[in-house]
Amino acid sequence: MTQAIDAGASLAGRLCLEPLTVLDCPAEETVDIAAATGCRFLSFWVQSAGPQLPAACMVERAAAGQLARRLADSGVRPLNLEVFILAADTDVSQFRPALETGAALGAVSATALFRDIAEPGRRLEKFVELCQAAADCGLRVNIEFISYNVVGSLHAAAELARASGQTNAGVVVDLLHLTRSGGSPAQIGEVDPRLVAHAQVCDGPASVTEEERKLEGSFNRLVPGEGAFPVRAFYEALPAIPIGVEVPWRAPGLRGLTPLERVQRIVGGLRAAVG
């Protein structure tokens, strides 16, 4: 339930196009963009995050088979599914159609976010339920920590994954959230490498206001190399896992560009930043 990548793989062999970067594109078009920009992997939006993030790229169940064939023809490999939000009253069974759609595409993992579950035992319960539902579809579940949410740091996410006792549990490390939580690339080495299955990269200013921080992740990231984040150190600290390029399509610095031009700029910035 992970994508095997050779330990010596270059950046080109690890790049993944994340859906937040191309939410305005039909899923079929994102396959072509990934192939054209040298992204070996592609993640998909199969579960809505809410009306504030409408997604033209949402994958419908009826289209999964055709999309899987297009992926096979392109050489781009399906990776991750966005986004499964867990709250105290979430009925995890409602996620099964989206998980099955992703499994039909050939994806290997899904992202879990936590919202407003103050009681640790309840968080663990909901996460275990999602892991078990995903396991039935052959999928891993990676926790994405967000500094202002209840699971707010890399160590908190790793501990929750470990405590779940689920063999398909892990974490995704997003450089934005690592930085905003007060973490550093060095912390990645403090986590069991078996848990760290997916990374996402962008850039940003050294500091933002509290209000800006809550909008930044979905709407206002920077292209790698255009901010203050330790992009190269982050890359060097990661194990051999896919690295997603995630800069929101609505980000001010990308306005006026076509989807292909946006991704070309982001990938080019990352390549320059890591040397």
Order of helices and strands: EHEHEHEHEHEHEHHEH
Distance between the termini: 30 Å
Give helix % range. 25-40%
* Structure annotation, total helices: 9
CATH topology: TIM Barrel
Count the beta strands: 8
Beta-strand content bin: 15-25%
Summed over residues and divided by their number, the pLDDT gives a mean of 94
CATH top level is Alpha Beta
Low-confidence stretches: none
Question: Which structural class do the helices and strands define?
Answer: alpha/beta
Q: How are the strands of the largest sheet arranged?
A: 1-2-3-4-5-6-7-8
CATH architecture: Alpha-Beta Barrel
Tell me the radius of gyration: 17 Å
Summarize the structure.
The protein has an eight-stranded parallel barrel with strand order 1-2-3-4-5-6-7-8, surrounded by six helices. Helix 2 (64-74) links the parallel strand 2 and strand 3. It has 275 residues and is α/β, with parallel strands linked by helices.
